[in-house]
Amino acid sequence: MSTFSGLFEEIPFISADRFDGENLRSKIFFLSHCHMDHMRGLDRPEGLPGPLYTSAVSRVLVRKQFPNVQDVRVLEIGSAEEISYESDGEEYRVVVTALPARHCPGSIMLLIQYRELKILYTGDFRLTKADLDSKFASLRQLEPDVVYLDSSFLKKCYPEFPTQTESIKKICDLITEWTSISPQHKVIIRIPAQYGSEFLFMEIGRKLKQKIYVANEQLEKYIFFPDMDQCISSNLKECNIFSLQKHEKGMFGSFHYRIIQPSALFWKNWTRGQPICKEENKNTIRVAYSSHSSYTELKDFIEFVKPKKVQLNVVSKMPEEMYKCLDEILGELEQSSKERKEPAIVKSRFDNLFRVPNSGYNRKYEEPIRMPIKRVKL
Ligand SMILES: [Zn+2]
C-alpha cells in the first residue's frame, strides 16, 4: 500500500499518485496506475488545478471513473515529453519519459528530468532481471539522482517469487484439473480485496477461454479496464470460475468447489525450486503470485540503475527492517563499485529517512538520456 506523499522534494509544483492536501498546490500531476491507493483525491468534485498525465489505458479508466478530472493527457511509452509550467511568474520545465512497470494493465514508471537532475519514480512495479536485461537498456547504469522505489517487498523474508507467467500457468492448470472432472466441479478464486486482479483475470480468461464471475459490488473495480468485459461476467449461471472473498453456505447447491488463493504475503522465504502451490486443506490451494518485485528483484533493479539515493514509496509501520535492507544493498553496491575502481556513487547511511549521496562526491552529472523530445507548453 503506497505511503508516498505525492510530492518530490527535488522538483517544485509537481505531484504523482496523490491528489489531496499539499498536492493541490502543484501545477502538473502524474498517475502511475489505477489502483485506489494511488488515486487518493481524484474524486474531488472540482477536479485538479492542472493537467493529469498518465498512460493511454489509465486515461480511459480515469475518464470513466472520475469525469470530474477534465484534463487527462497521455504519455506515450518510451518517448520523452517536455512539459513547461508556471508558478508565481516563474517558468519550470521537466522532461518526462513513461516506461512500462508490468504491475497491472496500463501501469508506468516515470523518468523525470528537471534541470540536471534525473528522478525515477517506479510507482508499483514487477520487473525481473531478465526483463531488465532484455527490454530496459535505457535504464542500465542510468545513475538517477533519486529512485522513488516500490518497496512493498523490501524484506529479506521475501527473497523470490515465481514469475507471473509461472503462477498464472499453475492457476490455470489447477482450474482445468478440477473443472474437467464434471460440470458440477467449480473453482473459487479468492484474492485479498485490496489488490487489483485485472491482469490475472485477463490471462485466465484468455488462456482458458472462460469468463470469471465477479459479484456486482466488485464489478466497478474491473469494468473500466479495456477488454475486461471479455473475461468477467456477473451472471452466476454462465461461469465455472468465481471471484469471491467469501461465499454463503449453499450458494452453489450441490456443486463441488475448489478454492484457489493467489497471494504474495503468505510465501515468506520462498525460493526457486520449491513448489509454487500448497494445499491448505482438501478444498483450498494457495498459489504464489505477486505483481510487486521481490527482495532479489529490487536488489537487481537497484544494481542495474545505480541510483545515488533511494526513497521508499511503501513504508510499513515498523520501517527499520526495510531501511536496514536498503542499507545493505547500497553498501554492497558501494563495495562492488570500489572493487571495480568505479567512483563511489552511493553512500550507505542508516538515518531512518532516506539514503544520501557521498558528501565528497563531486563527479559531474551525466547528460540527460537522449531521446526524441515532444514539447508541450501549458
Ligand atoms: Zn498497484
Walkthrough of the structure:
The protein is an alpha/beta fold and 378 residues long. The protein is built from seven helices and 19 strands. The protein has two domains: 236 residues, Ribonuclease Z/Hydroxyacylglutathione hydrolase-like (Metallo-beta-lactamase, Chain A); 125 residues, Rossmann fold (3-Layer(aba) Sandwich), CATH 3.40.50. The chain has a seven-stranded mixed sheet, with no helix packed on it. A seven-stranded mixed sheet has the order 13-12-14-11-15-17-16. Helix 1 links the parallel strand 4 and strand 5. Helix 3 crosses helix 4. The longest helix has 20 residues. It starts with 6 loop residues before the first strand and ends with a strand. About 7% of the residues have low confidence. Bound molecules: zinc ion. The site of zinc ion (ZN) has 4 residues, from loops.
Q: Briefly, what is this?
A:
Keywords: DNA damage, DNA recombination, DNA repair, Endonuclease, Exonuclease, Hydrolase, Nuclease, Nucleus. The chain has seven helices and 19 strands.
Compressed to H and E, one letter per element, the order equals EEEEHEEEEEHEHEHEHEEEEEHEHE
Lateral strand order in the biggest sheet? 18-10-9-8-7-6-19
Radius of gyration equals 22 Å
User: What do the pLDDT scores average to?
Assistant: 86
CATH secondary-structure class of the largest domain: Alpha Beta
Percent strand equals 15-25%
Q: What does the oligomeric state look like here?
A: single chain
What layout of secondary structure does this protein have?
Blueprint (H helix, E strand, L loop, with lengths): L6 E2 L2 E6 L11 E3 L21 E3 L1 H10 L6 E3 L5 E8 L2 E11 L7 E7 L2 E5 L7 H7 L10 E4 L14 H16 L5 E5 L8 H11 L3 E3 L1 H7 L9 E2 L7 E3 L12 E8 L13 E3 L4 E5 L6 H11 L4 E3 L7 H20 L33 E5 L1
Parallel strand pairs: 2-3, 3-4, 4-5, 6-19, 9-10, 10-18, 11-14, 11-15, 12-13, 12-14, 15-17
Antiparallel strand pairs: 1-2, 6-7, 7-8, 8-9, 16-17
The chain binds zinc ion.
